[in-house]
From TrEMBL:
GO terms for molecular function: antisigma factor binding. Residues 220-315 form the MucB/RseB C-terminal domain. It comes from the Bacteria. Its main location: periplasm. This is MucB/RseB-like sigma(E) regulatory protein. Residues 22-195 form the MucB/RseB N-terminal domain.
Amino acid sequence: MRRWLLIAGLGFAASLAANEPDPKALLDRMARAFRELNYDISFVYIRDNQVEPMRFVHAYEEGRERSRLVHLNGDAREIIRDDDTITAYLADAKPIMVDKAGSIPFTRSLLDNLARIKDSYRLSLGERERIAGRSAQELVIMSPNNDRYGYRIWIDQETGLLLRSELVSDTRQIIEQWQVVNFTANQPIADVELQVSADINPATGVRVLPVAAINSDETVSPFTVDYLPSGFVLRSQQLQRKPGVDEPIHHLLFSDGMAAISVYISKTPAGIRSAERVWRRGGMTIVEKADSERRVTVVGEIPSSTARKIAMSVRASGEPL
């Protein structure tokens, strides 16, 4: 009798395991839902004890993808996307969070780099919970090292859409988060919902250019970054100039699919002594390191210890290690 009970128990456990979704398949399903479904969501974005409500409307029809991101508090700020054309309307000229495709925080970068994410992070299932009145599966995305932040995300079990995300430290402390509070999906989206609001002057729109693929034959940086966390690759490099400043600023952009790191390198202004400064806002870290020759600034959603190691590893190409 005990033998049959044991066999029955093992069979039940195997049945439960078979019903558990595969973490990588769950991420793939979220990618398809994000691109191919119609949906209208309102969500809150929380960092540094500040709450910002937003709305994101997305439509997909015959391969054409359109979306509109609206900041609901303060001066009007919106981002309109029509396939690869992205236009930002910033009434107050303040910085707005815009990733490659003008979408909700972090998701577009994640979807464009699924293969690298699966190689650079550990994926595991969490609990099934109720988010925004819907049943959601938690997915934990953590780095095997402590050199970058991790994520906890909750995916709608019915549609596959993202309902909540948390940027977390290696100790699971929440650094930033956003969560859906109102949600409709698989309904027609009227054209007016994908156009800039009537109270915004269309002439204020600024075209946002996606990061171009790097061409190693035509663009060669005069600087080398010797330390980067595993999985980060060079996405773009630019030579920037500020009005009234003779010396250019070299900008290198790295990404692992989830996080992005910008490294700015310029000549140290006269009279500036060697120094190191660190700033934090939510998950964003800024480390500035200056010596007698150059000033290096590292900006990214990474721990300050990682940003410091990157800043200290920058050297001119040809300099000894």
